[in-house]
């Protein structure tokens, strides 16, 4: 009987989740994050109830977009007054505020009803991995990334780079000549 109480508590409480947005698509990530914000991962989910969890998103300045969406995708805003229309491309909005692209992606994924402002208050965005200690103390679990993050060349050791199999050897006539390093002037001690 006591086990059921623990299950009920874990379902009813608001958990804190961590999501790393490094090299992740903002739109695909928003689809997954919003499920946790709305509480769709819980068995007691109902569209009219506010039972979602908190989500902490780190590394939002390193989000990725496919093809040339940084250049072509635009965000529009209208104040409601005459001449109040403005439009900004994704890269410009990202330069102004590194968390804004992820914020707008999550905001657009939530259905436009009276619960949206309360749901968005539980989204905590950080441009890098520097999260305040009082927030890190609350985090209980991590949301799995959508896309696999490839290793950078710097992440491989020199031994791994040297042992990587080569498919063929380049002919000498196809290779670029190596640039000679400028020789330091030799001074003769007298």
From TrEMBL:
Domain of life: Eukaryota
Family assignment from sequence similarity: Belongs to the universal ribosomal protein uL13 family.
GO BP of this protein: negative regulation of translation; translation
Cell compartment(s), UniProt: Mitochondrion
GO cellular component terms listed in the entry, alphabetical order: mitochondrial large ribosomal subunit
GO molecular function: mRNA binding; structural constituent of ribosome
Source species: Mytilus galloprovincialis
Taxonomic lineage of the native organism: Eukaryota, Metazoa, Spiralia, Lophotrochozoa, Mollusca
InterPro entries: Ribosomal_uL13 (IPR005822), Ribosomal_uL13_bac-type (IPR005823), Ribosomal_uL13_sf (IPR036899)
Protein name: Large ribosomal subunit protein uL13m
Coiled coil: none
Gene3D superfamilies: Ribosomal protein L13
Keywords recorded for this protein, A-Z: Mitochondrion, Ribonucleoprotein, Ribosomal protein
Alphabetized HAMAP family for the sequence: Ribosomal_uL13
């Amino acid at each position: 009987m006591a086990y059921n109480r623990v299950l009920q508590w874990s379902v009813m409480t608001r958990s804190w989740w961590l999501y790393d947005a490094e090299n992740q698509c903002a739109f695909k990530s928003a689809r997954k994050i919003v499920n946790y914000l709305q509480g769709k991962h819980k068995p007691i989910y109902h569209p009219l109830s506010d039972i979602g969890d908190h989500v902490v998103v780190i590394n939002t300045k390193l989000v990725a977009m496919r093809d040339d969406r940084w250049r072509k995708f635009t965000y529009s805003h209208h104040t409601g007054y005459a001449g109040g229309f403005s439009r900004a491309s994704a890269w410009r909005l990202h330069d102004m505020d590194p968390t804004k692209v992820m914020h707008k992606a999550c905001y657009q994924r939530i259905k436009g009803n009276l619960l949206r402002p309360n749901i968005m208050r539980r989204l905590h965005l950080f441009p890098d991995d520097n999260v305040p200690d009082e927030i890190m103390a609350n985090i209980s679990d991590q949301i799995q990334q959508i896309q696999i993050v490839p290793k950078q060349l710097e992440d491989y050791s020199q031994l791994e780079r040297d042992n990587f199999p080569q498919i063929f050897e380049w002919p000498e006539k196809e290779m670029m000549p190596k640039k000679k390093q400028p020789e330091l002037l030799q001074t003769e001690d007298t």
